[in-house]
Design brief:
- This protein is an alpha/beta fold and 364 residues long.
- The radius of gyration is 20 Å and the shape is globular.
- Strands 1-8-5-4-2-3 form a six-stranded parallel β-sheet, sandwiched between helices. The protein has a two-stranded antiparallel ribbon with strand order 6-7.
- α7 runs antiparallel to α8.
- It is built from 13 helices and eight strands.
- The mean pLDDT is 96.
Length: 364
């Protein structure tokens, strides 16, 4: 099988770029459907409308209902058809642009992704994570191409809640370890081929950037400052992690995240926060040398390391085993680990990761 590397056609990151959105979108069509939350509309609607008007690009807004479910995708696909949209623009967080990608694929038009947070590595990818209307993981949907444009306004992102950027670090934290597992198992990646050296190099750079700049970026953001470390972390959370996970593969951490969605109390946690705990669990399964370093990093930036921090009080073995069974589903990615994985192995690793986290918190 061939080695395959895929990526968005264009990635733009810098201060003040949201005000230029219309000038970028007009390259893909003269009529846009903009998917955005009601809160996002209040914060950025006037700026977006002005930028489109300046470029002579028509737009129709449609408020996102809160979950990337098939029902929401179908609703917005109908809206895009009715609007005769030539380009779909998703503005906001991961569920919004996952929905925008699915809608654009359904109506076969271009898609522009505009994250206003750096909370996940989803913006650059040619896939969407689809949930049930109740918020439980359902499936991955894969598309023919990556977004035509990903635009990151660092001024906007630096003003977003710090917890969201930290969550993005949790998502990015998994990238190198899942890529390494896929390389060792010779797995087929989300790109539909084997791992490239380029993807592995980006995955490793993602991890190194987190270790070098993660704590510095968090402290700067808490102080209301935008620094080179913040810029580096935005890129790591979005571009490096996005390219790394898609072209180098997913393995244990994200499958465990998906399993955790079976616990309703975790729905209040962000994607990257659950992925961080999934990463710790994967490292326990591997008996990896980096477990201590990753645990220390999570503590330093405030990522959850215990069930209690994820909102879970009932962590009985039988309940955790149900999570592990979902994580081991045939349509998920635990099969990309380089050894046989069973629900029992995963459940024990989750309980051990929780124990290590509780011990580390007690030592602070």
């Amino acid at each position: 099988m061939a080695r395959i590397f895929i990526s968005p056609s264009k990635y733009v990151q810098g201060p003040g770029e949201l005000a230029k959105l219309g000038s970028y979108v007009k390259a893909y069509g003269k009529k846009a459907l903009v998917i955005i939350s009601e809160g996002g509309m209040r914060r950025s609607g006037d700026l977006i409308s002005t930028s489109f008007a300046q470029e002579g690009v028509g737009l129709v807004y449609n408020a996102f209902k809160g979950e990337c479910s098939q029902d929401e995708i179908d609703r917005l696909t109908t809206a895009a058809t009715d609007a005769q949209a030539q380009v779909i623009v998703g503005v906001g967080g991961g569920k919004i642009f996952d929905t925008a990608k699915a809608v654009a694929a359904a109506v076969e038009v271009s898609v522009v992704v505009v994250p206003t947070i750096a909370a996940t590595d989803a913006p650059c990818s040619a896939l969407s994570v689809v949930y049930t209307p109740e918020g439980q993981f359902k499936e991955y949907q894969f598309f023919k191409q990556n977004p035509n444009l990903v635009l990151m306004d660092t001024d906007v992102i630096a003003k977003s809640p710090v917890r969201l950027t930290v969550s993005g670090m949790g998502d990015a934290l998994a990238t190198y370890f899942e890529a390494r597992a896929c390389t060792q198992s010779d797995a087929t990646t989300c790109a539909g081929g084997k791992v490239t050296q380029a993807a592995m190099a980006l995955a490793r750079l993602c991890y190194d950037t987190l270790m070098e700049d993660g704590v510095k970026a968090k402290l700067a953001l808490e102080a209301g400052a935008s620094t080179p470390a913040v810029d580096h972390i935005i890129e790591a959370n979005t571009l490096l992690s996005g390219l790394g996970f898609e072209s180098a593969g997913l393995a244990g951490a994200h499958a465990i995240h998906n399993g955790l969605t079976a616990m309703p109390e975790t729905h209040a946690m962000y994607h990257g926060e659950k992925v961080a705990f999934g990463t710790l669990t994967q490292l326990v399964m591997e008996d990896a040398d980096e477990l201590g370093e990753v645990l220390d990093f999570c503590l330093a930036v405030g990522l959850p390391v215990t069930f209690r921090q994820l909102g879970v009080k009932d962590k009985s073995y039988d309940r955790v085993l149900e999570v592990a069974k979902l994580a081991c589903a045939p349509n998920d990615t635990l099969g990309n680990m380089p050894f046989e994985v069973t629900p029992e192995l995963v459940a024990n690793a989750m309980l051990a990761a929780d124990a290590y986290g509780r011990e580390a918190l007690a030592d602070l």
